[in-house]
Amino acid sequence: MPTLERPGKPALYYIDRVQSFDMEFKTKEEYVAEFLREGILSGRFPRGTRLKQADIAAQLKLSITPVREAFRILEAEGYVLSETHRGVIVAPFDASATREINELRMLLESRLALAAMEHITPQNYAALGELQREFEEAETRRDREAVRALNYRFHRQLYTIARQPQTLHFVQVLWAKYPFDLINLIGGRMGRAAAEHRRLLKAMKAGDRKAVVNALREHIDAGWCELQAHLDKQQMSLATAEEHKNKGAPVA
């Protein structure tokens, strides 16, 4: 399995990043759970990866107990599965439920964005703007893992401002089942997402609630629609190749 360390980026880099963007953790298990959530959604822990308690505890310099409790939290949310012979693994996304998940995301995340407008401060805008700047820098250097991590932090920090923890919890459950990894591979998607973030922040600063809802819904739906178009294209290519193969003709 991949450890928490990546080439050129030690585990402490990721630990510091989690601590710097969100200091709300009340317990060690909440901290570990957030660290692993971001790791899963950013792709540091690919779907199907086995997660070992001892490895994670050692690199986070914690005992096994909060890691074990974090696994339980993440299993309840759908981020990991506990299998008899393999232990804890990163869960696959649910392809059959993706459309429903997309619609629920638009509904709940719009609610959180509107609620955030009631509490957001200039300091919050500055922090979100910094995350957006880092997102765009990562997009420029084509660092897909960093882009996914920063996308998670951007939305997580924005929705935390809403002060609606139950709604945010349900959104995090939806994120566990969403194919961020596949969407991130679509050509040009990272740049389009950066532009969509800018439109969302602009609408929030203008106090335009309708524009905020439209910008967020378009942002979420764009990824879904682009994924469907990409998968349809792949399916057509496979069907064409199979047709040529059956006819004994060379494939162009």
Provide a short characterization of the protein structure.
The protein is mostly helical and 252 residues long.
Q: What's the structural domain tally?
A: 2
Sheet with the most strands: spatial strand order: 1-3-2
Q: Low-confidence parts, pLDDT < 50 over ≥5 residues?
A: 1-8, 10-14, 19-23
CATH superfamily of the largest domain: GntR ligand-binding domain-like
Instruction: Report the CATH C-level class of the largest domain.
Output: Mainly Alpha
Quaternary form: single chain
Shape: globular
What's the story with the biggest beta sheet? 3 strands, antiparallel
Question: What is the β-strand count?
Answer: 3
CATH architectural group of the largest domain: Up-down Bundle
User: In terms of structural class, how would the helical and strand content be classed?
Assistant: mainly alpha
Order of helices and strands: HHEHHEEHHHHHHH
Strand content: under 5%
Mean pLDDT: 85
CATH topology of the largest domain: Four Helix Bundle (Hemerythrin (Met), subunit A)
Helix content: over 70%
**Rg over C-alpha atoms, rounded to the nearest angstrom:** 19 Å
What is the straight-line distance between the termini?
A: 39 Å
Supply the number of helical segments. Answer: 11
Molecular structure report:
This protein has about 250 residues and is mainly alpha-helical. The protein folds into two domains: about 80 residues, Winged helix-like DNA-binding domain superfamily/Winged helix DNA-binding domain (Arc Repressor Mutant, subunit A, Orthogonal Bundle); about 140 residues, Four Helix Bundle (Hemerythrin (Met), subunit A). Helices cover about 70% and strands about 5% of the residues. The protein contains eleven helices and three strands, in the order ααβααββααααααα. It has a three-stranded antiparallel beta sheet with strand order 1-3-2. Strand 2 and strand 3 form a beta hairpin. Helix 3 packs across helix 4. The longest helix has about 40 residues. It starts with 10 loop residues before the first helix and ends in a 5-residue tail after the last helix.
